[in-house]
């Protein structure tokens, strides 16, 4: 029997990867748009669904999928807060994720954003694009080898970024509740307060845990940072207080901020606005207006060849294991049904 899958959120450049890596010979329906309430019908007659982040796998859609005969719900992401796990359990739908993929993808983006802000390259090229070739004081910068970089969350991604910065000559500090031996080879672990106070660049790579670290990057966090430091968040938007970010730049507490993420980002990201059109969120609009001191990328951290390959291959393998064995090593724990 040929297994049929609908894959939501497949960008044009990703289609060839989905097809080329399909060694299980699944029958694919590749849908470019993210899953929402208007395109759930694409799952009709399918056995499985593969999602990406920001897809809307809520109870309403999961109920539809169950009616369509869908048995497997997979996400090609490490996070799964876009899936209503209780609803999936209620409709006996098996869920699996991709727990890890190329750490270089996120680490390289973080490094790129940090170096752009440190050397003011975006500021400079923005001027030269307007045929202004004068040099001003903003274009002066420190060299990275004379800087201290603080990594908050030194897992695989944090360690990779630490190694990249270390290779450029930077002094690298780290903070993590778990201090692995491998990380100790690259970073010097210190308390969070010390890392914030001593670092010229802070890069955040901690997982978002609802109810525990919501908006951990807040005014208190920023006030503990070194004056004129740079802040990078390529982890999760729920970790940051956007108003605190805006205040930090307007008050010149920080020299620059870059983020690849926002909470509820699907309401803004992946859309094209008219140049004179304001965003619905005035705080995010304020951050956009502070370009090039604020750099925003639309959640492209994992948008690399290697990360995409990892995510698709693992998703396909997860489905094969679920079908053959009834479980996979990457199952998402579902809450027990209440009787």
TrEMBL record:
| GO MF term (any one) | NAD binding
Task: Please list the residue ranges annotated as the D-isomer specific 2-hydroxyacid dehydrogenase NAD-binding domain.
Answer: 112-301
- Coiled-coil-forming residues are none
Keyword NAD among record annotations? yes
The cross-references to CDD domains, in alphabetical order and at most eight, read: HGDH_like
Which keywords does this chain's UniProt record carry? NAD, Oxidoreductase
Q: Which residues form the D-isomer specific 2-hydroxyacid dehydrogenase catalytic domain?
A: 9-332
Give the first-level EC class, as a single word.
oxidoreductase
Sequence similarity: Belongs to the D-isomer specific 2-hydroxyacid dehydrogenase family.
Its recorded name reads D-lactate dehydrogenase
The organism of origin for this protein = Marinilactibacillus psychrotolerans 42ea
């Amino acid at each position: 029997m040929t297994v049929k899958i609908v894959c939501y959120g497949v960008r044009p450049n990703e289609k060839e990867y989905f097809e080329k890596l399909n060694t299980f010979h699944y029958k694919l329906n590749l849908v470019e748009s993210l899953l929402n309430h208007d395109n759930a019908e694409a799952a009709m007659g399918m056995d499985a669904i593969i999602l990406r982040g920001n897809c809307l796998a809520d109870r309403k859609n999961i109920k539809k999928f169950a009616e369509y005969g869908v048995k497997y719900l997979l996400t090609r992401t490490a996070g799964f807060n876009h899936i209503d796990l209780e609803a999936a359990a209620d409709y006996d739908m098996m869920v699996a994720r991709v727990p890890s993929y190329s750490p270089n993808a996120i680490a390289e983006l973080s490094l790129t954003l940090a170096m752009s802000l440190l050397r003011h390259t975006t500021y400079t090229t923005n001027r030269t694009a307007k045929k202004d070739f004068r040099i001003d004081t903003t274009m002066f910068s420190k060299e990275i080898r004379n800087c201290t970089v603080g990594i908050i969350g030194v897992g695989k991604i944090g360690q990779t970024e630490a190694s990249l910065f270390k290779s450029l000559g930077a002094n690298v500090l780290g903070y993590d509740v778990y201090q692995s031996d491998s990380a100790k080879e690259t970073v010097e672990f210190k308390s969070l307060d010390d890392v914030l106070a001593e670092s010229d660049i802070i890069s955040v790579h901690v997982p978002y845990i609802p109810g525990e670290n919501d908006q951990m990057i807040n005014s208190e966090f920023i006030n503990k940072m070194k004056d004129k430091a740079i802040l990078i968040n390529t982890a999760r938007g729920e970790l940051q207080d956007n108003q605190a970010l805006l205040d930090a730049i307007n008050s010149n507490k920080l020299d620059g901020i870059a983020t690849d993420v926002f909470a509820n980002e699907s309401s803004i990201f992946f859309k094209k606005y008219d140049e004179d059109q304001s965003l619905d969120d005035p705080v995010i609009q304020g951050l956009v207006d502070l370009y090039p001191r604020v750099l925003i990328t639309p959640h492209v951290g994992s948008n690399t060849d290697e990360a995409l390959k990892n995510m698709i291959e693992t998703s396909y393998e997860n489905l094969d294991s679920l079908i053959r064995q009834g479980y996979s090593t990457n199952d998402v724990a579902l809450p027990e049904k209440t009787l």
